[in-house]
Protein 1
Amino acid sequence: MVAKVESWNQQRSVIAGEIREYVAAAQKLLGELGHTADAGALAVAAGAKAFKTGRRAGFTMSAEAKRKISIAAKARWAARRGQTAEANAEAKPAKKKRNVSPAVRARLARLAKARWAKAKKAGRNKL
């Protein structure tokens, strides 16, 4: 296993050297043409780590900022669908909540208690 890892590391070193040669040749060609290459891209190609991305530690966004971003995103989505945000809100009315009458609720409670009584009588603690 160690031999395989060493072999891979040697191959990696050879490939990295070839890439450096290509980068140097590309820089030379760009220099001859009067252009300069992006230093960040060349550093990454030469083996340096890429620039760190993402948020800094401890960053929190306010609820107001999140709300503004949400509203803007919803407006963009509506625009892609060819609708305005107001038209989209009107097109889908909220579902009416279905309520159970007290009589039905009492009947369901009686049935559940009967099921549990039967289960406990049989010595079970699960239905």
Protein 2
Amino acid sequence: MRKLILKTDVPRHWLFMLSGLLWSIAGSILLWRALGWLADVPINSEIISESLGTILGILFFFSLFKKIARKNRSRIASLPKRVAIYKFTSQRSAIIIAGMIAMGIILRSSAFPKHLLAVLYTAMGTTLWFGSFLFYKSWLNVLYRQGQSK
């Protein structure tokens, strides 16, 4: 009987794409939830909440999150040419992500007003979307350099 061996190693540059996709997906989920919570509020309140969340998200990205994304990109770039696919994030980052997911679950199931929670979700969703493009840029840069060397 043959054993099925699952190989999880991929070329390192695919970790940039995977990170970008996961940040985009997580950001999209947060933005979608925020929009859903705001569907029942007056349009003026919805516009104010979404605008405030977007502005906060952009500020958070440029003041803190951009540095985090760059640090993660540098970490990925320092990995061997072929690496396990689950190395797209560090152990420390995985713990932070798990904590953020747990906090989101707790907040969603609490009595915290959803229209206010929508501002936080919009801010974090916007931040993740902006961060995802740094990873896409790194992935495209690697592909471009590979094309130049041929």
